[in-house]
Amino acid sequence: MTAVKETLRIGFIGAGAVNFGGAEGPWDHASRLEKISGLKVVGIADKMPGKAQQMLDVRRQTANSALYTECTAYEDYKLMLQEEKLNAVFIGVPPFAHGHFDYPIELDCVRAGVHCFVEKPLSVKAVADVTAYMESVLEVQRKENLVLSVGYMFRYHPAILRMKSLLETHRSSTGAQLMYLQLTYNCAYSQMNHPFWWRKHLSGGPIVEQATHFCDIARFIGGEVLADTIQTKVLCDDDESGAGRLSAVQDVIREEEIKTEDRIPRLTVAHWRHSNGAIGQLTHGIALHHKRYETRVEAWADGLRVTIADCYTDDCELSYRQGDTDSEVTERFPGADPYQIEDDVFIDAIRTGDSSKVQSSYDDAAGTYALSWAIRLASEKQESRH
Length: 386
Hints:
- There is one protein chain.
- The chain has 386 residues and is an alpha/beta fold.
- It contains twelve helices and 14 strands.
- The protein has helices at residues 17-20, 30-33, 51-59, 77-84, 105-111, 127-144, 158-174, 200-203, 206-209, 212-222, 338-352, 362-384, and strands at residues 8-13, 39-45, 72-74, 88-91, 115-118, 148-150, 178-188, 231-235, 267-273, 279-288, 294-301, 304-309, 317-322, 329-332.
- A hairpin with a 5-residue loop joins strand 9 and strand 10.
- Helix 5 (105-111) runs parallel beside helix 6, helix 6 packs antiparallel against helix 12 and helix 10 packs across helix 12 (362-384).
C-alpha cells in the first residue's frame, strides 16, 4: 500500500449520531478526527434532505470549524465520491442501508479508490448474502491496496488488551487455558430515539446491532465459537408473565405499531463452546433508563479470574485474582478512549501504508457478524417452539 503524506481529504457517509454524536453518548468519529492534525473534511453525505447541510452548519459553529471550511454537503454519496477526490471515508449509516448489493456503499467506495472505516454491524442481510458481497469488496480492496477497518473499538481498549495479556501470560507460565468467558451488557434504552433500532428488519435486532461488540470481544478473547453449540433463550415484550414490558420507550418509536415478530427481545441469554474448549456466555438486556450502560466481562482459568466492569465509561475498572492468594488487584483506565485509538490507527495506516495495527479488518468482522446472527437465529428457533 502506498503511503499518503499530504493532508488527507475525509468524507462522511451518514450525518447521524455514529459520525457526529447524539443523545446516547459521545460515541462519534467527528470529534475524534478533530483532534488529529493533517486532515480536512471535504464532504458530508446523507440521503435525508438537508441533514448533511444541517450538520455541516453545526460543525462550522464549533472551535474546530477550520476543519470544515472546504466541506460540501451532499444528498448522494456517489456524487461526493465523484467530486471530492477523497482519501478516506467514514461509513456510519443504519444497518439496513449498507453492506449488501442493494446498498453497496463499501463497494462503491473501494471502486473509487477510497480507504474505508465501516461502522458495525456490517449489514442486516443473511450471512450468506453478506459474505458474497464482502468477497466482492475484498477483491477490489486487495487490488487497490486500501485500508478497510471496522468499528469494533473494544479491540483497542486498554482494559480488554490487559485481560487478553493476563490470560496469555498466565497460560504461558502455568499451562492453564481459558475455561469460561462471561459477557454481560445492560443497555440504557429510555433515550433510544431511533425508530429503526426497535425494528429487527432494519437494525438486525439487539444482538446483531448492539451486542455485536461483545460478540467481537468473545472472539477476540476466547477465540472462535463453535456455531453448532450455540443455545439461546429470550424474553420478549409479549411474554405472558409481563416481565418483558418496558415503561420508558419513547413515543416516537410507536412500538405498538410494530409487528410482534419484528419487535426486539428485552433479554437475550446465549451460551456456547469455543473451539479451544472454553464455555462462553452472553447476556444482553434492555432494562436501564437514562444514558449509562452497565457492562461486565469476566474470564476464568485455573488459578486466575479477571473481571472488567463498565468498559463504556471513564470509570472502567479491571480486577484480577491470581495464584495462591485471596487478595485482588485492581487497575483503572482513566481517560481511555478506544474510539480515538481506532481512528488514530486507521488514519496512521493510510499515512504510512502499513495496516498491521488495524485490529478489526473487514473480513475478520464478518466472523463477528456470523456469530451475532447465529445467536439471533438460535433465539428465533426457541421462540418458534412456544
